Amino acid sequence: MDLLARTPDLKQFPSVNMDVRRIRPNPSVGLHAHRTDEAIAIEEKLSEITLTGLRTNGEPYTGTLFLHSTYALLMMKLYALRDQVNDETRGFGRKHALDLYTLMAILTEPEYAETHELSLRYRETEEARECARIVADLFATIDSIGMLRVRENEAFPINADIADFRALLEETFPTNGDESSIDSTANN
Fold first, then answer.
1. Domain coordinates of the chain in residue numbers?
2. Whole-number Å distance between alpha carbons of 97 and 149
3. Using an 8 Å Cβ cutoff, are 66 and 126 in contact?
4. What is the pLDDT of residues 25-65, one digit of tens each?
5. Is the C or the N end of the chain the one with fewer CB within 10 Å?
6. Is 149 in contact with 99 (CB distance < 8 Å)?
7. Which of 138, 187, 125 is closest to 166 using CA atoms?
8. Does residue 146 sit in helix, strand or coil?
9. DSSP string covering 119-150, please?
C-alpha cells in the first residue's frame, strides 16, 4: 500500500521531514508518504466507508476508510501515465491508462457531479492545466498514444466505448487551445 500526500504547509506542520519524493513525520513512526503534489483535491469529496470484521486474533474491529475523489485520482493517474507512457520498463503506463478508463467507466451520477464541480473549481490551477495538456497530447484522437495504451491493456473490455471515455476526459480537463503541449517523452 502506498500512502500519498500533498506537500504540507510547513508553517502548519513544522515537524514534518520532507524531500523531493517523501514526507515523514518527525519523530519517525516508521512510515512515509509519497509526495503527490498534482492531487490538489486529494482531501476533498472523500467517500467514507466503515469496515467491520474480525482481527486475526478473533477480536472484533470497526474502522473507517476514506477514499479519494475521482477527480483527485484522475489527476494522479494522468501524471503517472505521462511519466510512463514511453517507458517499456514500466509497461508503457498501460496500467495507469486502464485505471483512467475504469475511473470514468464506473462514475455514478453523484460522482460525476462532484468531478465536474472540482474540475470547475480547479480548472485554472497549474496542476489542472497540466492535466489538460496531458489529455490533449495523449488522448486527442482515437489513435493517440494514450488511447492506444488503454486498448493495449489485456484487461480492457473488448466492447468498451472508448470514444465516450475520451470525451469525458476532455470535458473534465479541457484546454483553451493555447496551452503548450507536454513533453510525452519524459520518463520520470
1. 4-35, 70-172
2. 6
3. no
4. 888 888 888 888 888 888 899 999 999 999 999 999 999 99
5. N
6. no
7. 138
8. helix
9. HHHHTTSHHHHHHHHHHHHHSSSTTSHHHHHH
